[in-house]
Amino acid sequence: MLALLGVLFTPVPDPVDGSMEEDQGDERLCQAFSEVLLSVQDVDEQDGDQPQLCSQYVKDIYKYLHELEVQQAVRPDYMRGYEITGAMRALLVDWLVQVHSRFQLLQETLFLTVAVLDRFLQVQPVSRRKLQLVGVASMLVACKYEETFSPTAGDFAYITDGAFTAAQVLTMEQLILTALRFRLGRPLPLHFLRRNSKVANEQLQPLVRHIAKNLVLVNEGRSKFLAVKRKYSSSRLLQVSLAPQLRSAAVRQLAAPLLAS
């Protein structure tokens, strides 16, 4: 960008013989401008033969996703004054990860479930007795949006061990959809993770430190939220949570500042 600004604001010598010199100056400026643009790597240029990657308009897609992210933001302190707490929400999400594995759902479904859950709770507080109901109804909504074959309301009622009926799940589904005004096309962390890992040039260290901290807490038995680790310890998911690199000194070093505080 600095190089580009330098090109744009480099003074052009005064013309000596009229328009011909001016045209040559414009040509040199255009050439320099093109060289600056070409120096920026296009990470999508090799994807033209893969239509599912939408290389022609992927940048417009992510611009739109960033706009949606602002429009549908979840406030970090939205539970302040609620009967339910952040710890209760964490227990619910940990359980939903297990439900997600039980039904063998898509990764997008889990992320959308949590997004729907938070967006609904911040506009409609619920009692702790109904928190699990909101969780399964949020997953039902996410399944209908993402899955080819979705579990039924009866399946989700069954997974609550009879705490709620299928009719209650469907009623809560209607409340959620009404509260969100049927706007479910929210950008998910998974979308940005895929893009960021492809570009591989962002400053991700603060985020990685938090991930490392959670890895250390789980691996040392200092966390009770183990559903994600169990999920990714299965051979179907290549046992990535058991990889020795996750217990390495590098991970502990990254986590050290946060663990100390």
Automatic annotation (TrEMBL):
Q: Which UniProt keywords apply?
A: Cell cycle, Cell division, Cyclin, Signal
The positions making up the signal sequence are 1-18
Q: Which InterPro entries match?
A: Cyclin, Cyclin-like_dom, Cyclin-like_sf, Cyclin_A/B-like, Cyclin_C-dom, Cyclin_N, Cyclins_cyclin-box
* One GO biological process term: cell division
GO molecular function annotation:
cyclin-dependent protein serine/threonine kinase regulator activity
- Gene3D superfamilies listed in its UniProt record: Cyclin-like
Looking at the record, the residues that make up the Cyclin-like domain are 94-178
Q: Which domain of life is it from?
A: Eukaryota
Annotated family: Belongs to the cyclin family. Cyclin AB subfamily.
Description of how the protein assembles with itself and partners: Interacts with the CDK1 protein kinase to form a serine/threonine kinase holoenzyme complex also known as maturation promoting factor (MPF). The cyclin subunit imparts substrate specificity to the complex.
In terms of PANTHER family, this protein maps to: CYCLINS
What does the UniProt function comment say about this protein? Essential for the control of the cell cycle at the G2/M (mitosis) transition.
Q: What is this protein called?
A: G2/mitotic-specific cyclin-B2
Q: Which organism is it from?
A: Salarias fasciatus (Jewelled blenny)
